[in-house]
Amino acid sequence: MKHIAWMSFLVSALASLAMPTAAADMTGRDVFDHYCGACHGTDDGPGTMQLRRTRGKDQALLTERTNLSADYIEYVVRHGLRAMPPFVPSDLTEAKLKALLAFLAK
Amino acid sequence: MAEPLPPGVNAERMADALERLRKIVGRDWVFSGEKVASYDDPYTIPNDPGRYKAHAAVAPASTEQVQEIVKVANEFRIPLWTVSRGKNFAYGGAAPVLSGSIVLDLSRMNRILEVNEKFGYALIEPGVSYFDLYEYVQSRGLKLWLDVPDPGWGSVVGNALDHGVGYTPYGDHFGVQCGMEVVLANGEVVRTGMGAMPGNNTWQLFKYGFGPYVDGMFSQSNFGIVTKMGIWLMPEPPGYRPYLITFPRAEDIEQVVEIVRPLRLNNVIQNAATIRSLVLDAALFATKSQYYSGEGPIPDTVAKQIMADQEIGMWNFCGALYGPPPITDALWTAIRDSFATIRGVKFYFPEDRKRRPDILIHRADTMRGIPKLTEFGFLNWNGGGGHVGFSPVSPTTGKDAIKQFRMVSGRVREYGFDYMGLMAVGFRELHHVTVIVFDQTNPKERQKLNEVFQLLVREAAAEGYGEYRTHIHYMDTIAGTYSWNNNALLKMHQTIKDALDPNGILSPGKSGIWPKRLREAKKV
């Protein structure tokens, strides 16, 4: 039963990864879910797990962080950081990045 | 550092060419200056910062725009490095072999043109990711399954073109490709197979059409730009049962593979199952520092601790059964009885796995075509983030499997890396993929990685094992190992290249194939 519940959660999470990608249709939350969610959106995503190990439990989930500046997020998105590769501007466009920064940066 | 220019092109000519490209695609879709950094190889290998750097990138939205871009590239003799989505990480990402190239980024060409449930296929553009196609199928309730590689954000077209593999019965991605649209270097658009016949309705149903079958010529190549592709999708089976079989000793791989071969050849093992090594599986959800703080690869005592802690073996066979339960029950009986002869073997279904996260629970999604990024977890094993794949092909024999395992694991451990390998089971061959995870921020470690990789290629080739796919840094090296009869195959590739692309504008250096003008420059 636990397995079924876990699967349902996963399918739901994945559905959010592939929502419409036209910038005008996407909120900052949409951009985060689509581009960042698979690694940073859940407790067991590879990005969340690595941040938990390297920066501590309270720094693991990006959406709960209060110390992310817009400049820092933009740099990491465009240049990558260690295991995380960069996102090209043809896909994660400037307009989407702006929405993401408004959602995530504090 | 200023972006490099390609051979024979000065800054003024490049600026003129970029302006022409802006008129074709719009100013927002030509990227230069600091915006090009996103196209760098994030896990670069050489310490020379000038290697594999693009000058700019251009992102067209249509086949017609690709045709126009190709005309400009011919006029200015500027090389275009084509990527579908640029997510071919561990093999160079979006970065070009030839510095100064303009990346032709097809990410915006992301239309799903048709998904046909009746016949089980999709016709898509190269910018369509596995996530995109999965969502399209799910949101419409279509009874079709994808076959996905480990990272779901990559291009369906690009992965097939690079001979990528997945884990359902449709795991040979180029094998389930059917029909292409290709822009040639002269700007002409070609449709292959049945697509060449006006009004034909079997373009995605029958591969071969009439005359020579040319689709393979556009895979791992620089002979054209694929702008549409058909891909077969698996009808949703009436039953699905994933399983995990673990084996406790490294040397078990010999017996495991001997058992696998007849089961796979007779389709008792139905899917492109994988035999995965201990550290590869452990690294998905744990880091090395949780188990070991010493230098170099983990010792055997630590390996045993990981096995006990994560309930996995030195080798872990992840497979799945597809079909009506009476059939899958019978297949499982044959599989279980075959492997039961190995001492210490353990069998698991998902309901037997209590730990979370867990390897079988994760692979159960992948083997039913759910795209994910979970496998990126192994990049955290030592914290350095870099990785590269060494991927020789082996016959499905125990003798070859253990020989390859000993060759590769011995060398990578000698150089201080943990062995993180898997053997993906094809019908008659194993793709032995070893991921070498390295600290990309450490120049000495990158140098060490390069040394061991070159050694692995040489030693594998000496034993007759060739890589099926490689990082941009090793394309010339690997092409050089396919040298039978005085490099006859490479010479044929060059002849085709020169005929189709006389100005050498399409992806110079891809798979070791260089156009004439750059071949001659390389000899100087």
What would your notes on this structure say?
The complex is a heterodimer of chains A (106) and B (524). Chain A is mainly α and 106 residues long. Helix content of chain A is 57%, strand content 0%. Chain A has helices spanning 2-17, 28-40, 46-55, 70-79, 94-104. Chain B folds into four domains: 11-105, Uridine Diphospho-n-acetylenolpyruvylglucosamine Reductase, domain 2, CATH 3.30.43; 112-235, 2-Layer Sandwich (Uridine Diphospho-n-acetylenolpyruvylglucosamine Reductase, domain 3), CATH 3.30.465; 240-476, 3-Layer(aba) Sandwich (Vanillyl-alcohol Oxidase, Chain A, domain 3), CATH 3.40.462; 477-523, Vanillyl-alcohol Oxidase, Chain A, domain 4 (Orthogonal Bundle), CATH 1.10.45. Helix content of chain B is 32%, strand content 18%. Chain B contains 14 helices and 19 strands. In chain B, the strands form four sheets. In chain B, strands 12, 13, 14, 15, 16, 17, 18 and 19 form an eight-stranded antiparallel β-sheet that branches. Chain B has a five-stranded antiparallel β-sheet with strand order 5-6-10-8-9. Chain B has a four-stranded mixed β-sheet with strand order 1-2-4-3. In chain B, a hairpin with a 3-residue loop joins β18 (421-425) and β19 (429-439). The longest helix of chain B is centred in the last third of the chain and has 20 residues, at 443-462. The chains are: A mainly alpha (106), B alpha+beta (524).
